[in-house]
Structures are given as structure tokens and as C-alpha cells.
């Protein structure tokens, strides 16, 4: 006997839920909130557009012209300014000096700043006084420091050579700002003198976040000053080191005042950096079109370095 197949019970049909209508009051409130936010942001956005992005496009446009920056007449020459730049030995010399300046200042300033910060972090007398002494050059104008060190480095009456003669080491006196082999390193010394205090303060503030037990454990294990500094302190301050590197590279690319006040790029272009080279071509030689091409290349270099540093930071994180 065949059994009749039971049919499933018919499910009741669900009625469609009507979509929720937006509340006009909330929509107006959100719009008002957004407009208020844009009103606060608008001045900054306009400032950035007017003085940064417009300047970039303005330079890029004039890099395609031969122009003295004064007359109304401009001659379109395409990429000839770039071709001339890449065949100019003075341009490569400025790039080389900028690279040497940046690498040495960033490395030495960070190293000295780390040592000074750790010394001041340990218990001792007069820490506040010495922090103020080391930080004082940071607040001085680079123009003031450049003029002061021009006198200090003077070959005949400078304090350094006078001191060397006084202690019987006159054979080591140098024409610090007049010798092509020494001048760039003398300017590097001025920059290190000014900005080491900034590195010291940043490292010191970062050290305050390290637990005191970490230092005590290193002391119990018998780690000395340098061992603790290298194996305990430095690994915990990688973020600060990275920040100082970024700031140092940016400062190295745009350094101008100390070099110009001290040597004006001389002697014999031995201290010419990319910023003084750019200034010389645009303001003194009135080759604004060519200087605009140099500025575009400098911008590309800065963006490339920033991109590389950002990638490195992500890997570190």
C-alpha cells in the first residue's frame, strides 16, 4: 500500500519592511556640522594651496622656459634646463656636498645627543644647568652663529688658531674657512654645535618613558655605561632615532644660512650646497628658469627620501 506523500506546510509570506526614511532634522544637523568643520579647515587648505602647491606648479611651469625672473618675455625651451643641469659639474658638486653635510650632521648630532641625554638621565648634580647650556645654541639664529664662527675660525686672529699657538701646537692651525679641504667640515661643525642640543632633548624625553627597572636590571647584570647605552637604551629609542633622521635629512636639504654667512659656498665651490647653488642661479645670475628646474629635482629627491623613510618606518612598526 502506497502512503500519500505529506506536503510541507505552506510558510506564511513575510511582508517587505518599508525602508526607513531619513530624518530631515538629523540630516540638516550633520550638514551643519560638516560645514563648520570645513570652515575651520578652509584657511589652512587655502594657505597650503596658495603657498605650496601653487608654488610647485609655478616652478614646474617656469622650468620649461628661459627667463630672468624680471622681464615679461619668456622663451620656451622645453627640457633644456634639465639637460643643462644634468651636464653641469657644479650641480653634482652641490649634491655631493649636500650629501656629505647631511650624513655627517645627522649621524654625529644623533650620537652626541644620545650620549649627552644618557649622561643627564643618570643621577648627578647640575643636570638642569647642563641641559640649558647644551640646548642654548638651538635657540640662536643661524645667522648669529655663522657670523660668530667666522670670527672664531679666522686664520690670523681666530680663537682656535690663537689657542693652538698658545699651547705650542701652531703646526696644527688651519685656514678653517679658506681651505677647500677643510671648509665644508668646519661648517658641519657649526651645524653640529647648534643642533646637538635638540637631539639631546628629544632623546632625554624619550628615556623618561623607559622603566627604571630596566636600568636597574642592566646594572645588576654588570653592564657598564656604554654597554647599557648600546644594548638597553638605544634599542628602546628607535622611534626617536628615526624621527631625528627625518628632521636631519630635511634640514640638510634646505640648509642655507650658515653656509651663506660663513663662506657663501666658497672657497672654489667647496662648500656649495644645493640651496646656495639654487640661490646663486636664481637671484645672482638671474636664471630663474634654470633655478626652477633645480628646485623640481630637489623636490623629487625630498619626496623620494620621505617615501623611503616611510617604508622603513612601516617595517620597523
Outline of the structure:
By secondary structure, the chain is mainly α. It has helices spanning 24-62, 80-86, 89-121, 127-135, 142-152, 159-166, 183-207, 212-220, 225-236, 238-254, 257-262, 274-284, 288-316; strands at residues 65-66, 75-76.
What can be said about the biggest beta sheet? 2 strands, antiparallel
Terminal CA distance reads: 76 Å
Beta-strand segment tally? 2
Low-confidence stretches: none
> Widest sheet: strand order?
1-2
Report the mean per-residue pLDDT as an integer.
Answer: 86
User: Which sequence of SSEs, written as H and E, runs from N to C?
Assistant: HEEHHHHHHHHHHHH
Shape: flat
Beta content comes to under 5%
What Rg, in angstroms, do the CA atoms define?
31 Å
Structural class: mainly alpha
Given the structure, what is the number of helices?
13
Helix content: 55-70%
Keyword list:
mainly alpha; flat
Report on this structure:
The protein has 13 helices and 2 strands. The chain has helices at about 25-60, 80-85, 90-120, 125-135, 140-150, 160-165, 185-205, 210-220, 225-235, 240-255, 255-260, 275-285, 290-315; strands at about 65, 75. A hairpin with an 8-residue loop joins strand 1 (about 65) and strand 2 (about 75). With about 325 residues, the protein is an all-alpha fold. About 70% of the residues lie in helices and about 0% in strands.
Write the layout of secondary structure elements.
Elements (H helix, E strand, L loop, with lengths): L23 H39 L2 E2 L8 E2 L3 H7 L2 H33 L5 H9 L6 H11 L6 H8 L16 H25 L4 H9 L4 H12 L1 H17 L2 H6 L11 H11 L3 H29 L1
Helix pairs in contact: 1-13, 2-13, 3-7, 3-10, 3-12, 10-13, 12-13
Amino acid at each position: 500500500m502506497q502512503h500519500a506523500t505529506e506536503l510541507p506546510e505552506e510558510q506564511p509570506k513575510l511582508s517587505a519592511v518599508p525602508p526607513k526614511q531619513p530624518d530631515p532634522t538629523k540630516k540638516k544637523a550633520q550638514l551643519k556640522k560638516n560645514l563648520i568643520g570645513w570652515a575651520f579647515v578652509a584657511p589652512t587648505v587655502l594657505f597650503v594651496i596658495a603657498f605650496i602647491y601653487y608654488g610647485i606648479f609655478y616652478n614646474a611651469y617656469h622650468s620649461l622656459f628661459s627667463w630672468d625672473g624680471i622681464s615679461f618675455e619668456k622663451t620656451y625651451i622645453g627640457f633644456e634646463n634639465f639637460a643643462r643641469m644634468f651636464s653641469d659639474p657644479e650641480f653634482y658638486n652641490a649634491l655631493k656636498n649636500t650629501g656629505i653635510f647631511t650624513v655627517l650632521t645627522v649621524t654625529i648630532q644623533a650620537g652626541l645627543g644620545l650620549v649627552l641625554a644618557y649622561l643627564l638621565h643618570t643621577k648627578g648634580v647640575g643636570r638642569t644647568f647642563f641641559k640649558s647650556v647644551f640646548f642654548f645654541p638651538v635657540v640662536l639664529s643661524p645667522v648669529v652663529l655663522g657670523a660668530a664662527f667666522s670670527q672664531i675660525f679666522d686664520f690670523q686672529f681666530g680663537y682656535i688658531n690663537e689657542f693652538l699657538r698658545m699651547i705650542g701646537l701652531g703646526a696644527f692651525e688651519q685656514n678653517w674657512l679658506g681651505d677647500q679641504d677643510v671648509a665644508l667640515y668646519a661648517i658641519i661643525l657649526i651645524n653640529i654645535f647648534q643642533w646637538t642640543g635638540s637631539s639631546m632633548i628629544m632623546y632625554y624625553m624619550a628615556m623618561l618613558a623607559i622603566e627604571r627597572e630596566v636600568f636597574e636590571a642592566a646594572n645588576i647584570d654588570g653592564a657598564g655605561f656604554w654597554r647599557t647605552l648600546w644594548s638597553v637604551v638605544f634599542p628602546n629609542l628607535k622611534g626617536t632615532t628615526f624621527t631625528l633622521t627625518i628632521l636631519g635629512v630635511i634640514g640638510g636639504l634646505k640648509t642655507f644660512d650658515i653656509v651663506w654667512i660663513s663662506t657663501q659656498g666658497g672657497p672654489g665651490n667647496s662648500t656649495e650646497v644645493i640651496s646656495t647653488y639654487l640661490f646663486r642661479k636664481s637671484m645672482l645670475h638671474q636664471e630663474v628658469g634654470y633655478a626652477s628646474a633645480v628646485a623640481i629635482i630637489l623636490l623629487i629627491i625630498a619626496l623620494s627620501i620621505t617615501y623611503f623613510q616611510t617604508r622603513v618606518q612601516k617595517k620597523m612598526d
